[in-house]
Amino acid sequence: MFFWFDFNALLFVSVPEPVCVPVFSSLIEFKKAALGHAIGHGHEMQTQHLSRILTPPKPNEATMSAPQKNSWQDALSTLITDPDEFLNLLELDRAMLAPAQTAALLFPLKVPRTYLRRIEKGNPRDPLLMQLLPHGFELETHKNFTTDPLQEADHNPVPGLLHKYESRVLITLTSACAVHCRYCFRRHFPYSDNNPGTQGWDRMIDYIKNHHNINEVILSGGDPLAVSDHRLKEFTDKLATISHIKRLRIHSRIPIVMPERINAGLITWLQSLKWPIILVVHANHPNEICEEVGVAMHALKQIGVTLLNQSVLLKDVNDDAAILTTLSEALFAIGVLPYYLHLLDRVQGAAHFEVPITKAMTVYQELTAKLPGFLVPKLVREEPGKVSKTMLTSVQF
Ligand code: SF4
């Protein structure tokens, strides 16, 4: 069951299983269909959730802290990692098993169990499944696809810290992710060399202290929200001793794939920080936006976190203007602004996700025509050695 809510209209409706958000040609059609279903099925769940939206949860209330406490850690310790189990649970063809097992040896399978509800059973073309299921294509090698497509090794002055752009540094606090996205440009990243542990934090802090041009710290991945609240606080306590830091940015896919992580403990930590906080989540398809994600985003918005989304343009997943339009609308409805639409980074094992540039530009032009400017993410490509991401516009092609 999926529940949709709209913060402006305080509308809260439900649509039938199994897909979290069906891709309707427009959000209005979607809402009409969903509302029709809700009105026709005036059930208890709808009433409960309607009242929850009319009285949005406040951070630190018992409603948020008690039942959700540490449930994310349980979820993280019981991820689906066996392709056999994954295919069984989704009632998929056994012929997919052997290549999935081989590809998973290169980059293991990881999927949160609750995320499964958003994937349509028996559908090998499901756009969320395609992001997560190891595939035989990953074993192929392609010219220009490398293990370090962004040449991050050249910008790694201290273990755990990347300094690519002048005023920002990126910190990898952990190698852990709640999900393994098959297209991830860090799928070959040497996390073992870049996981300094708490002992290594002082070197990172010293580096930042000694570089006064750095005004923003980005916690990235792995997934920084896979780290416990206690350890996050330990790190930010050290960071708080540096006066030239003006902002803290967190890049995380966890609020999308495991929204129960946004619990009272995390909210308390965020509220304790002295900097403006920007959370950049990562959703690629509107089927990823479900009720729990909306509740999590609402809790973050209530404490003043700036919420942005970045997506990767992926062949046969979201390389379609209608899908991306619905994604932008769905994000906006839960308080998140589309930020970047990345062209695929050419990482070895992910060539089958690449969208040719001409098609990317066509899709982007259509998207631009469908949406107001503030809902159009910037189409970008990251190029090694450049001082910023490269924006792509139709003028260039
Ligand atoms: S969550 Fe982020 S870092 Fe982890 S595999 Fe996915 S894209 Fe890569």
Low-confidence stretches: 1-69
Instruction: Fill in the CATH topology of the largest domain.
Output: TIM Barrel
SS field, number of helical segments: 14
| Total of domains | 3
- For the terminal residues, how far apart are their CA atoms? 43 Å
User: Outline, from the CA principal axes?
Assistant: globular
Structural class computed from helices and strand pairing: alpha/beta
Strand proportion: 5-15%
**The named CATH superfamily of the largest domain:** Aldolase class I
Rg of Cα set: 21 Å
CATH top level assignment of the largest domain: Alpha Beta
* Oligomer status: single chain
Task: Record the strand order, biggest sheet.
Answer: 3-4-5-6-7-8-9-10-11
Largest sheet: 9 strands, mixed
Explain what you see.
The chain is built from 14 helices and eleven strands. It has helices at residues 27-40, 44-54, 62-68, 71-77, 83-89, 97-106, 129-132, 197-209, 229-239, 254-257, 264-272, 291-302, 321-333, 357-370; strands spanning 2-6, 11-15, 161-165, 168-172, 216-220, 247-252, 277-282, 306-312, 337-342, 378-381, 390-391. By secondary structure, it is α/β, with parallel strands linked by helices. A nine-stranded mixed β-sheet has the order 3-4-5-6-7-8-9-10-11. It has three domains: 2-55, no CATH class; 73-139, no CATH class; 152-396, TIM Barrel (Alpha-Beta Barrel). The chain is globular and about 55 Å long. The protein binds iron/sulfur cluster.
